[in-house]
Amino acid sequence: MKEFAYRRATDVDEALRLAAAGGDTRFLGGGTNLVDLMKNGVEAPERLIDVRFLPLGGISETSGGGMLLGATTTNSDIAAHPDIRRRYPALSQAILAGASGQLRNMATAAGNLLQRTRCGYFADPSEPCNRRAPGSGCGALAGEHHNHAILDWSPSCVATHPSDMAVALAAFDAHVRYQTMEGAGALPLSRFYLPVGDSPHEETALPGHALITGIALPSVTPTLRSRYRKVRERASYAFATVSVAAALEVLEGRILDVRIALGGVASQPWRARVAEDMVRDAAADAELFRAAADAELSAARPLRDNAYKVTLARNLITTVLTELAASERL
Amino acid sequence: MVDDMHSEITLFVNGKTTSLEVDNRRTLLDAVREDLGYTGPKKGCDHGQCGACTVMLNGRRIVSCLTLAVAAQDAEIVTIEGIAEGDALAPLQEAFVRLDSYQCGFCTPGQICSALAMLSEHAEGWPSAVTADVSPDAPTPELDAAEVRERLSGNLCRCGAYPSIVRATLEMAARKGISS
Ligand SMILES: Cc1cc2nc3c(=O)[nH]c(=O)nc-3n(C[C@H](O)[C@H](O)[C@H](O)COP(=O)(O)OP(=O)(O)OC[C@H]3O[C@@H](n4cnc5c(N)ncnc54)[C@H](O)[C@@H]3O)c2cc1C
Ligand code: SF4
Ligand code: FES
Ligand code: FES
């Protein structure tokens, strides 16, 4: 690991000043991804600014009836929060489906969003990888890619985004709030991650040296039901092969509101808008759900070894929507 | 004189305070093992994947291999050495011995720290990935084998002592009146 300087920031202005002071500086949250990648030599910052002592922790109600997750709130605290469990259960379930108890106690909300891909070539500096070393090629495209993307990849990179939490946040139309020396800003999750294109190393729309300050969840109607389901290669403690966060609001058999987001299929959480449009305002019905899932996945371009994900995604979408519709009738 | 790449820190481990100078790259795991001599926490993978290095930081279980020592200064840290009272084993340690919850023992310090912290998390009402209804209005699920396995899935055991690790943990939960 390369040597680095460490500073602990106690107010946001200080953190922003330190970040803009020059050199390759990185914010340190729980360190569960950054420290890991520094050990592999994938990341080699000159300076770490510990943000966990900034006044950015905690979970609060927003004026619009939604909730604000402070950037440094741990994944555990978000998943265990009574209001998150009551109003955004898919978010609680998504977090609980990720990593381990220890890691969730360390991981922060902001760090979770900004964790890097788990593509094995990315994690190994002796391999080609456009995301880590632009222009070096993509080892996974013709190599080991059974757990890579089926949607919206480019020949430059076929990796998926690993976060479970971000998939649920996409379904709830969350906004990421940030601050720079120039002021505060916000990005909807749908525009937070950049399409992979020719420059997979440019991962988010955050301006340079931006500090994420929080994640805002819009209000939800009390009758919106939501659920997260994750398929993985082990029963627990493994990244998703495919996951789905879905929310449904049904009144007298009619679907008023629907949100579907997929994990493990693209370089960012995949909002299934085609399927949503087919289902919204229709009568809740398993056949319709399957047709909607098929329509969404007609855009899939599986790689040599991951066509199974298309079937998996279709079955997951159908099952979860059917379960949610059934729970409405109880 | 410390330069930018080193820090003078104070660590509070198992009730003792130690001031030391560390390279900023030093992990909490290496600091407690090599600088403070607490060799209970083990280095299995050094990448957050196995749980052998589990310790408690401010009462919560964490992996010490991905925690920088400099970032853990001023926090209260407890390793397996801080679990027992004097020479008397803590009840969960005793249950591990009696129920054969280990073979080589390499993962055991991490398993015990993790299980104890997990019991506190459960007592606070935290749900898990196998909890059917995460609603706060639903009763906190009793700890059964499935709940224990899920909640301890961050601790691997290459000897495969899992059945008796679950047994010892369930016995402990039963003593606290929180298992089925
Ligand atoms: C063994 C293992 C298994 C895992 N399994 C899963 C899984 O199944 N599902 C899943 O979703 N995740 C999983 N994870 C990943 C884990 O969720 C992430 O590592 C974690 O959420 C990252 O959060 P952190 O606070 O530790 O981030 P850090 O490692 O501290 O930081 C990550 C990135 O975010 C940046 N950053 C941090 N805070 C801010 C801020 N406030 N503003 C701007 N930038 C910031 C850092 O500079 C860095 O680039 C696993 C990790 C491990 C090690
Ligand atoms: S898929 Fe992306 S991350 Fe993986 S090797 Fe190719 S460029 Fe790198
Ligand atoms: S040594 Fe820390 S988790 Fe394996
Ligand atoms: S007892 Fe040997 S690794 Fe668990």
Query: Rg of chain A, please?
Result: 20 Å
Order of helices and strands of chain A: EHEHEEEHHHHHHHEEHEEEEEHHH
Shape of chain A: globular
Task: Write down the oligomeric state.
Answer: heterodimer
Give unreliable regions of chain A as ranges: none
Q: Specify the overall morphology of chain B.
A: globular
Helix content of chain A: 25-40%
> Quick check: average pLDDT of chain A?
97
Question: Helical amount among residues of chain B, as a percent range?
Answer: 25-40%
Stretches of chain B where pLDDT is under 50 for at least 5 consecutive residues are none
Termini gap of chain A = 56 Å
Number of strands of chain B: 5
Which secondary-structure class do the elements of chain B indicate?
alpha+beta
Strand order of the largest sheet of chain A: 4-5-8-6-7
SSE topology sketch:
The complex is a heterodimer of chains A (330) and B (180).
Chain A: E1 5-8, H1 12-20, E2 25-28, H2 34-40, E3 47-50, E4 59-61, E5 67-70, H3 75-80, H4 82-87, H5 89-96, H6 101-106, H7 109-113, H8 139-142, H9 165-171, E6 175-180, E7 183-188, H10 189-192, E8 211-217, E9 225-232, E10 240-251, E11 254-263, E12 270-271, H11 273-279, H12 286-297, H13 308-329
Parallel strand pairs in A: 1-3, 2-3
Antiparallel strand pairs in A: 4-5, 5-8, 6-7, 6-8, 9-10, 10-11, 11-12
Chain B: E1 6-13, E2 16-23, H1 28-35, E3 54-57, E4 60-63, E5 76-78, H2 91-98, H3 108-123, H4 145-151, H5 162-175
Parallel strand pairs in B: 1-5
Antiparallel strand pairs in B: 1-2, 3-4, 3-5
Helix pairs in contact in B: 2-5
Bound molecules: flavin-adenine dinucleotide, iron/sulfur cluster and FE2/S2 (inorganic) cluster (FES) (2 copies).
Protein name (chain A): Xanthine dehydrogenase family protein subunit M
Pfam families (chain A): CO_deh_flav_C (PF03450), FAD_binding_5 (PF00941)
Organism (chain A): Nocardia tengchongensis
Describe the protein's architecture and organization.
The complex is a heterodimer of chains A (330) and B (180). By secondary structure, chain A is an alpha+beta fold. Chain A has helices at 12-20, 34-40, 75-80, 82-87, 89-96, 101-106, 109-113, 139-142, 165-171, 189-192, 273-279, 286-297, 308-329, and strands spanning 5-8, 25-28, 47-50, 59-61, 67-70, 175-180, 183-188, 211-217, 225-232, 240-251, 254-263, 270-271. The longest helix of chain A has 22 residues, at 308-329. Chain B has 180 residues and is α+β, with helices and mostly antiparallel strands. Helix content of chain B is 29%, strand content 15%. Chain B has helices at residues 28-35, 91-98, 108-123, 145-151, 162-175, and strands spanning 6-13, 16-23, 54-57, 60-63, 76-78. In chain B, helix 2 (91-98) crosses helix 5. Chain B is globular, with a radius of gyration of 17 Å. The A-B interface holds A 1, 3-6, 8, 28, 30-32, 35-36, 39, 47-48, 50, 52, 76, 79-80, 82, 85-86, 89, 92-93, 96-97, 99-103, 105-106, 235-237 and B 4-5, 7, 23-25, 27, 46-48, 51, 54, 60-63, 66-68, 70-71, 114, 117-118, 121, 124-129, 131, 134-137, 149-155. Bound molecules: flavin-adenine dinucleotide, iron/sulfur cluster (SF4) and FE2/S2 (inorganic) cluster (FES) (2 copies). One FE2/S2 (inorganic) cluster binds next to loops of chain B. Chain A: Residues 1-222 form the FAD-binding PCMH-type domain. Chain A: Keywords: Oxidoreductase. Chain A: It comes from Nocardia tengchongensis.
